Amino acid sequence: MSHKLLIANWKMNHVDLDCVRFMEEFIPKFSAKREAWIAPQALHFNLVRSMGEMKGIRVGVQNVSENSFGAFTGETSAKSLRAMGGHFAIVGHSERRQFFGETSKICALKIRTCLREGLAAVYCVGETLAQREAKLTLAVISDQLLQGLNDIISPTVDKLIIAYEPVWAIGTGKTATPAQAQEVHAFIRSVLKERFPGLGEHIKILYGGSVKPDNVEELLSQKDIDGGLVGGASLKAQDFLALCGDK
Ligand code: PGA
Description:
By secondary structure, this protein is an alpha/beta fold.
């Protein structure tokens, strides 16, 4: 059985000293029972990477440009990130979709760039509350998956990760029940198996949306939940240690 993977998405929260304090507290207690990846602000990438290196903690970014280099003011390059030892980029987080107009078509370009440059892409999908109430969840997820993965022919299994993040559960304290999450994860698994025969069953599918120390074990015990993408509960070292199985 492969290790469960927990990814910390720190969003635009920590300043550099907070990152240092977090790593000083986290590193000595982290046992690598589960895999831990961290996405700090791009500004703090190298600081966190150098502190996490000895424990095999992979570091990435919360967003990446679809272009590898050139005249794109303010963007983060997958090529440069890879050259500095970056491991992954989150693509299509709902906050990017909501506040920055990112569509699944744009995500497709970003995923393709990540794979070409050797980064893992963590592709986020998820329905809004209105879509869930209108019973559109599976249709929305299917559409986001097929559009976002449109250009991808044969990813290697360690370079493509899907994160199911119901928009109504992000930062709200409302978690999908393990059964609700498992239902969507099983559906995502079936789409991946059809899209990438022989490979789809091995692609990691993470759950995100108010994952906390007190609900993580039940979520991770579901058959198709391979880990978590965590915002709020990843900001404190003690909480993230608990999510990683190191109480
Ligand atoms: P949350 O955020 O854990 O604070 O709900 C999850 C995410 O945005 O990835």
